[in-house]
Amino acid sequence: MLLRTVRRICLRGFQISAAFLLLLAAGTARAENDASLDEFFRGGHFETSLANGCLFSPFAAIRNRPTLNYTISELQVGYMLTDVSGPSLWRGNWEVASGAFGGTAFDGVGDDIAGATVWLRYNFVPRQSRFAPYLHAGAGLTYSDINRRLVGQDFNFNLELGAGVRYRLSSHWSVNLEYRYQHISNANLADRNLNVNAHGPMLAMSFFF
């Protein structure tokens, strides 16, 4: 009963965060149909984003793996490495980003998860569209007090993959929806290293400057 209550509270918090981001998006959107997505991704420009989501594990291999579901919030700062270029299908640019994240377990043993990740991202930038898909991968460090059957120590490593799409709202703002995969492991530095493989949705707002 208590677990179901906590789960509802955490999921409701995610829903409220998502609603807040969408309302902020609506408030910042302006009719700038002639603006080009290329301006977002010009080399030397920056992006900052705030994301919220829920990740669920185990993923794929589930035998003897305890359940661990948790919320996640992340602040990222990105730097555009290149201008937009390439053929129409692959037209886009490269971006590097660093991010700090934190979360709370709502199903499983443990309470807190926090860490930092360095990302490499490829932004697909189609012509005459407000949508910009992207793929990215990252690695970093994680601190947590989660189930020691999964990770045998407090400090661990993370590997992450994500695929998403941005929707341009104005000359500086976009709203982003992403599918995220997060792997947490101690790289066999502790006696136990069953590891965490979690996945789930992320919703974010980005500001470009």
Whole-angstrom Rg: 18 Å
Note the main sheet: 8 strands, antiparallel, barrel
What letter string, H or E per element, gives the SSE order?
HEEEEEEEE
Question: What structural category do the secondary elements indicate?
Answer: mainly beta
Q: What is the general shape?
A: elongated
Number of strands: 8
Percent strand equals over 45%
Summarize the structure in words:
It is elongated, with a radius of gyration of 18 Å. Strand 3 (92-107) and strand 4 form a beta hairpin. With 209 residues, the chain is mainly β. Helix content is 13%, strand content 52%. The longest helix has 27 residues, at 2-28.
Compact description:
It is built from 1 helix and 8 strands; from the N terminus they run H-E-E-E-E-E-E-E-E. The chain is mainly β and 209 residues long. The chain has an 8-stranded antiparallel barrel with strand order 1-2-3-4-5-6-7-8.
Task: Describe this protein with a few key phrases.
single chain, 52% strand, disordered N terminus, eight-stranded antiparallel barrel, 1 helix, 209 residues, mainly beta, 13% helix
Helix-strand blueprint:
Layout: H1 2-28, E1 46-57, E2 68-80, E3 92-107, E4 112-124, E5 131-144, E6 155-168, E7 173-185, E8 196-208
